[in-house]
Amino acid sequence: MELHEHISILKKGKSFIITFTLLVTLAAFLFTYFRPVTYASSISFAVNRINKQETPYYDDSYFGIQASDLFSQTVISWFLTPSVLLEIYESGEVDPQIESLERFANRFKTKKYSPQNIVVRFSERDEDTANTISQAVITVVEEKAVSINQTADNKALFEIVGEKPVIVKNDPQTILATIVGFIVGLVVGIVLVYLFRYFKTPSQLKEHIS
Asked: Which helix (H) or strand (E) holds 18?
């Protein structure tokens, strides 16, 4: 296809391209403009091994790391358990506003960066609530950690310590989203014009050209 044919196709589809681009741009602007501000919270937990038992028969450091890894995995599983999540909200005296168990169980995101380092992330619509829930997360996790890793002589093998939460305001990127919407709308509009021409029957195409 030669250049003048491309120009002809774009000229004939100009109205559609402009209209489609403006609609997508407007939709992107309105979506981000009316999107509520959220506050993202990140909490780091350090899993420390305490009351290490010395033994002359094997190197305890390797087995200690493996045990820490298993303990960290247990902590991560708490944030997929609705009953534990409900305990967190009750500790912070915040209404959990449960719409479904699936969404409630996915409200917190956890990642284990090492056997001794866990990060928990979540978002809330206001800073006070984000801070309250962050403190409740630290309290519940530390308390549950103490209760589940007691030895026969009532000594804890691990302790988990929550660091100071980092809370960041997430502003909707209205200008950026509008620019992206314009570019996407323009590209998709041009593609649709070419697809419309491609799927036309030869007789329709002849009438359109004439």
From this structure: helix 14-33
DSSP string, 171-203: ---HHHHHHHHHHHHHHHHHHHHHHHHHTS-HH
Task: Find the domain containing 182 and state its range.
Answer: 3-34+173-209
First-to-final CA distance of the chain: 18
- State the pTM of this model: 0.67
Q: What are phi and psi of 205, to 5 degrees?
A: -65, -40
Q: Based on the structure, what is the number of domains in the chain?
A: 2
On whether the CB atoms of residues 190 and 15 are closer than 8 A, the answer is: no
Q: For residue range 99-153, what is the model confidence (pLDDT) as tens digits?
A: 888 889 899 999 999 888 999 999 998 999 999 999 999 999 998 888 776 655 6
Cα 189 to its chain centre, rounded Å, is 31
- 103-127 as b/e, with b when 16 or more CB fall inside 10 Å? ebeebbebebeebbebebebebeee
